[in-house]
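Q: I'm writing up a methods section and want to include an example of the input and output format. Could you take the sequence below and give the corresponding predicted structure tokens, formatted cleanly so I can copy it straight into the document?
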Amino acid sequence: MRKLLLAAALLLAVPTASRAQFGLGLRIGYGMPGGDALKADTGTGLTAFKYSDLLSSQTNFQIDAMFKTGPSTAAGIYLGYAPNKLAGTPAVSCDTAGVSCSSYTLRAGLQFTGEFLDLGIVGLWGGIGTGIEAAYATQEGGGAKIDAQLRGWEWATISAGADLKLVKLINAGLYISYGFGQFTVQEVKLTSPLGSMEDNGGLGSNATTHNMFQIGLRGMFNL
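A: Here is the clean output for your methods example:
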């Protein structure tokens, strides 16, 4: 009897043997930009740019590394890479013969998620994250090259989804998310046969709020 009670106590004291403590996830989503990337400045003549004037969409690939903090909650980090589809004036310039362009956005930060409703084979979850965001664009043509970068803080990204519990260790399903933040630093470098020029610094009063709405698929492997 003593041995049986001791074995039961050990099982209760070491829950790692009965439930997953770490989760590794992958998201693939389609993003639609909104809000403003830059605010107009009458003093310097800087023109306002809506985020959708620079990007028409992006395809987001995100890795989630999560640690269990409770029976249905987890905290961890996320890393995202999103190729951008340019819009407006940048897109027109890139369609010119002899000109090539590329653009992408990087994200990294902390997040917290939790399952708020367990329906058996389906689980409904929500989460919130915050981190850094950097958008890059490069244009080459006619012997010249322009490298541009906008960096800032993505204040919050709110996510929600429905997971199918396919097998014991794997969940997969749809998700939606809405993130908003502000670019606060810009870096622009022009390189040509005549030399190079740079314009770097903080955006100051020209910084404003942009957002990104995403819809996509998420898979989570629970170890």
